Automatic annotation (TrEMBL):
UniProt-recorded name of the protein: S-acyl fatty acid synthase thioesterase, medium chain
Coiled-coil zones: none
Pfam families hit by this protein: Thioesterase
Domain Thioesterase: 25-246
Family that this chain belongs to: Belongs to the thioesterase family.
Enzyme category, top tier: hydrolase
Classification via PANTHER family: S-ACYL FATTY ACID SYNTHASE THIOESTERASE, MEDIUM CHAIN (PTHR11487:SF0), THIOESTERASE (PTHR11487)
Organism, scientific name: Seriola lalandi dorsalis
Keyword GTP-binding annotated: no
Enzymatic reactions: (9Z)-octadecenoyl-[ACP] + H2O = (9Z)-octadecenoate + holo-[ACP] + H(+)
Any one of the GO BP annotations: medium-chain fatty acid biosynthetic process
Length: 262
């Protein structure tokens, strides 16, 4: 049985602050294994001109009993299916970190190709462009044994050590993380012959993270392209100082995007 639109929206989108009068929406995509709460609370922090929608994927939070998605197309179909009507109402931007950078790009790609709809800005974080050599040559983490996988997790930081040493918590956390990595590691994307998009793209990254090929993201747009490096490693954006820099930047660009949109 098909859920009514409002219920489908609630299933897939976490929105702490409904803001019908907002000038723009920020749609946020989780990192691998991540939930929606981290971004949903941005709705409480950002001013009233921006409404924040945080994407909730199956297999976690209120969707814990649903099977994980197996490929990028399933994520794109669900997110676009639920959001399309609201994205036509007012300017929107996309934000994604790591795995979320790929999902936000895949969603933007589908919106443009199929619905001729484009965000006013894409904010990408902590990831090489999907068509870059750096990403194509990256080791496949989702195929590691749990033991090696945990070693890798500890090495990138961002996951509290007490969580990694708790077998019960790990049983809940690891499957979602591996499922997301499986999706991203099997996501294929050719270098575009011509830019798909014309909106501005900004890439953020942690200075101490493994190097990502941010410049290759420039190939996706004919619009402005900017990179911003912040202190910290892969989860630099969990630092409150960095979060403030990030959100101030997003706010400034979304508030002025309204002018460009008209």
């Amino acid at each position: 049985m098909e859920l009514p639109a409002s219920n489908r929206m609630e299933k897939v989108i976490n929105c702490f602050q409904k803001r019908p009068d907002a000038v723009a929406r920020l749609i946020c995509f989780p990192w691998a294994g991540g939930g929606s709460i981290h971004y949903a609370r941005w709705g409480n922090v950002l001013n009233s001109s921006i409404e924040v929608f945080a994407v909730k994927l199956p297999g976690r939070e209120s969707r814990a009993k649903e099977p994980f998605f197996l490929n990028m197309q399933q994520i794109v179909d669900e997110v676009v299916g639920v959001l399309l009507p609201v994205l036509k109402e007012k300017p929107f931007a996309l934000f994604g970190h790591s795995f979320g950078a790929f999902t936000s790009f895949a969603v933007a790609d589908a919106l443009k190709k199929i619905h001729n709809l484009e965000p006013v800005h894409i904010f990408l974080s902590g990831a090489s462009a999907p068509h870059s050599e750096t990403r194509i040559k990256a080791p496949k983490r989702s195929e590691l044994s749990d033991e090696d996988f945990l070693k890798w997790l500890m090495s990138i930081g961002g996951t509290p050590p007490e969580l990694l040493s708790n077998p019960e918590v790990l049983k809940l956390f690891l499957p979602a993380l591996k499922a997301d990595l499986h999706v991203v590691e099997n996501y294929r994307c050719e270098k575009p012959d011509v830019p798909l998009l014309s909106c501005p793209v900004t890439c953020f990254d942690g200075k101490e993270d493994v190097p990502h090929d941010l410049q290759a993201w420039k190939d996706i747009t004919s619009g402005d392209f900017t990179t911003r490096m912040l202190d910290g490693s892969h989860f630099y954006l969990k630092d409150s100082g960095n979060e403030k820099v990030l959100l101030d930047y997003v706010t400034k660009h979304l508030e002025t995007s309204e002018m460009d949109y008209l």
